[in-house]
Write a structure and sequence with these properties.
Blueprint (H helix, E strand, L loop, with lengths): L9 H9 L3 E4 L9 H14 L4 E4 L8 H5 L2 H12 L12 H13 L3 H5 L10 E2 L5 E2 L1
Parallel strand pairs: 1-2
Antiparallel strand pairs: 3-4
Helix pairs in contact: 1-2, 2-4
C-alpha cells in the first residue's frame, strides 16, 4: 500500500523504519487501532517482513487481534507475516511492572515503630526514575 506523503509524514517514517535493523512494537493491542492506523501498522510490518528483525510484545492471544486491527482479513495477513520464521516466547505470571510497584509500596510503608515515634518527620531528598531505582 502506498501512503501519500501528507498523512502523518508516513513516507518519511517508512523511510526511517526501513533503515532499522530491529523494530520493537511494544504493548501491541493496548489501544485499538483506527482503520487507518491498522492499515499503517500492516504496511510497516509488511515493509519489515524478511528485511528487519521485529520484536512484538502484547498481552493478547492471536485470536483477539481482530478486535485491535478491526478486520479478520487484515489480522490474518498481519499474523501471517509476523509468525512466518519467528520464535514465539510466551510468558506467564505476574507483570514485572505490577511486581515492581508492589515492592516499592512495601518498601515505602512505615513500620509500626516509625508510625508511633514522636520524633518530627524527616525530610528526604530522593527521586524515583523509570527503572524503579531511587536516587538519594
Amino acid at each position: 500500500m502506498n501512503w501519500p506523503d501528507g498523512i502523518f509524514g508516513t513516507h518519511r517514517l517508512k523511510t526511517q523504519l526501513a533503515r532499522l535493523d530491529l523494530l520493537v512494537l511494544d504493548e501491541l493491542g493496548y489501544v485499538p487501532a483506527s482503520k487507518v492506523g491498522a492499515e499503517l501498522l500492516f504496511d510497516v510490518i509488511s515493509t519489515a517482513y524478511e528485511r528487519t528483525s521485529l520484536i512484538v510484545t502484547t498481552n493478547l492471544p492471536f485470536e483477539s487481534w481482530t478486535e485491535v486491527l478491526g478486520s479478520e482479513r487484515l489480522t490474518g495477513a498481519t499474523l501471517d507475516r509476523l509468525t512466518h520464521r519467528c520464535h514465539i516466547i510466551e510468558t506467564r505470571g505476574e507483570s514485572y511492572r505490577l511486581h515492581d510497584a508492589k515492592a516499592r509500596t512495601r518498601r515505602s510503608k512505615p513500620t509500626t515503630d516509625e508510625r508511633s515515634s514522636n520524633s518530627p518527620a524527616r525530610a528526604t531528598n530522593s527521586a524515583t526514575v523509570d527503572d524503579g531505582t531511587t536516587n538519594s
